[in-house]
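Handout, section 3.2

Students often ask what a structure token actually looks like in practice. Rather than define it abstractly, here is a full record for Oligosaccharide repeat unit polymerase. The first block is the sequence as you would receive it.
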Amino acid sequence: MFIIDRLLDSDFYDVKNLIVTALESFNSFEMYINIIKDSFIRIENGILRTPFMFVPRSIWPDKPESISRVISFSYNPSQYNTGGGTVATLFGDMYINGGFIAVIILCGFLGFFSRLIYNTASYTKESYYSECFKVALYSFFTYYTLHFYRGFFSEMLWQLLLVIMSLFFLRVLFFKRN
């Protein structure tokens, strides 16, 4: 309600500032456009890095850095020097790794996974435990979906796979479909 009241009580300049703030900043958007134009990120910084994420730098000192670190190194050195990174979001990560085709594949994956969760919730027998399972399933799905919109797919993949395997194991162990 605060935003609607603010919109109704303000002039155009305030509305523009509100929109700019809501979109984080146009500088970030401009930076993401430049990342795509400059095409300095290699595939080993993204998806191909995923299977080797568990290897510590003490064993593999030249291990490729994540996309967020590479972006910070090129566009925000002070953030890079303090150990931070710049997020390109889920769709930016997919676009950087595989172009427009990867974004389409990702949307298909999200749709398939959403349908799988819906079917699991719809066709499990009703009981107290199945209701708890459904709440947990939807909570994890919502959390990871929102986190992916703000983070990197390639950096969250292992956590997501662990949660999916755990939930699948619980489903197989405790619940049967009608």
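Discussion prompt for tutorial groups: Residues 27 and 33 are 10 Å apart (CA to CA). How would you have guessed this from the sequence alone?
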